[in-house]
TrEMBL record:
Residues of the signal peptide: none
Protein's name according to its UniProt entry: Small nuclear ribonucleoprotein Prp3 C-terminal domain-containing protein
Organism: Sistotremastrum suecicum HHB10207 ss-3
InterPro entries: Phi-like (IPR017359), Prp3_C (IPR010541), RWDD2A-B_C (IPR059181)
Lineage, broadest ranks: Eukaryota, Fungi, Dikarya, Basidiomycota, Agaricomycotina
Residue ranges that the Swiss-Prot or TrEMBL entry lists as coiled coil: none
One Pfam family matching this protein: Prp3_C
Residue span(s) of domain Small nuclear ribonucleoprotein Prp3 C-terminal: 171-232
Superkingdom to which the source organism belongs: Eukaryota
Length: 286
């Protein structure tokens, strides 16, 4: 049994519990972060034990859940801030290396439209409604289609053209980067999207990432979806043909402009920041 029923956290956990209990046998719900703790909480709720939600640490938010269908080519991740559902809307991320950009965009647009409509209508349990009525059925359609395509390819094999993945990188500048929530989200997104890069915190803020094109595009969209002061996407483009993705997948935090400049120099990409005046005398911090 949940305690403190008036809090946002109570509403979130109650909604996830309802969603968890409504899943079909082949549908899954997991927690990409702090999974042991969250699974323990919901296992206790399943047997009617008390859970004091106000005792949960703020560091557990934003709370992310991953929902999908076993062996399906796509799944959905939902990110909830501590102020959902009364203030901020959930962030929807469509995952799946085997789905096309068209399918990805269709699912994301559908989810965002439904979330907006439900919010405007004053509906409750927005995440539950969007997942159960729209995203899970859509994922099941994609799973069924992938199964049919596989059977067809086995019965009627034909050669398929190969397309090498395109390496991209992107750079943001902002007035500042202080928020621990933003910094945590950047770290989580870089990990889930297999990106490398850095966040220069303080004044000004810098964010740089590199990875495969689809992953960089999703990261950029996620960054833009947050509230910023004077955020600018300086570029998002393919890496030069002579350049290559770095083998290490790590995300760093820095406090000085000089560290960011040195990072770009080590990659042979100093010009990408120098051409914008980053690292000049007027912007370099001590």
């Amino acid at each position: 049994m949940l305690q403190t029923p008036s809090s946002n956290i109570f509403v979130q956990i109650q909604e996830i519990h309802v969603l968890r209990c409504s899943l079909l046998p082949d549908e899954t719900l997991s927690f990409p972060a702090d999974s042991e703790l969250w699974n323990d909480i919901f296992d206790r709720l399943d047997v009617g034990e008390d859970v004091a939600v106000d005792d949960l640490s703020e560091s557990l938010w934003p709370l992310r859940i991953a929902v999908g269908i076993q062996d399906a080519p796509m799944h959905v991740e939902i990110e909830l801030s501590r102020s959902y559902p009364h203030d901020e809307l959930p962030i929807v991320m469509i995952r799946g290396a085997a789905i096309s950009r068209e399918i990805h965009n269709e699912a994301k647009a559908m989810a965002e439209q439904q979330i907006t409509q439900l919010k405007e209508a004053g509906e409750e349990m927005i995440v539950y409604q969007v997942l159960s009525a729209h995203l899970l059925p859509f994922a099941r359609q994609q799973s069924d289609q992938a199964r049919r395509d596989h059977i067809s390819s086995v019965e009627h094999p034909r050669s398929q053209p190969s397309h090498a993945p395109v390496a991209f990188h992107a750079l943001f500048t902002s007035h500042h980067l202080i928020s621990t929530k933003k910094r945590r989200s950047l770290q989580q997104w870089s990990s889930s999207l297999h990106l490398m890069g850095f966040a220069k915190v303080g004044y000004p803020g810098l964010i740089y990432c590199e990875g495969l094109q689809d992953d960089v595009e999703e990261f950029v969209a996620n960054v833009k979806s947050m509230q910023w002061l004077a955020l600018h996407n300086r570029f998002m483009e393919a890496l030069p043909p002579s350049d290559h993705l770095q083998s290490r997948r790590e995300w760093l935090e820095m406090e000085k402009i000089a560290e960011a400049v040195q990072y770009m120099k080590a990659l042979g990409r100093h010009s990408f920041v120098a051409d914008m005046g980053i690292g000049s005398t007027s912007t370099t911090d001590s």
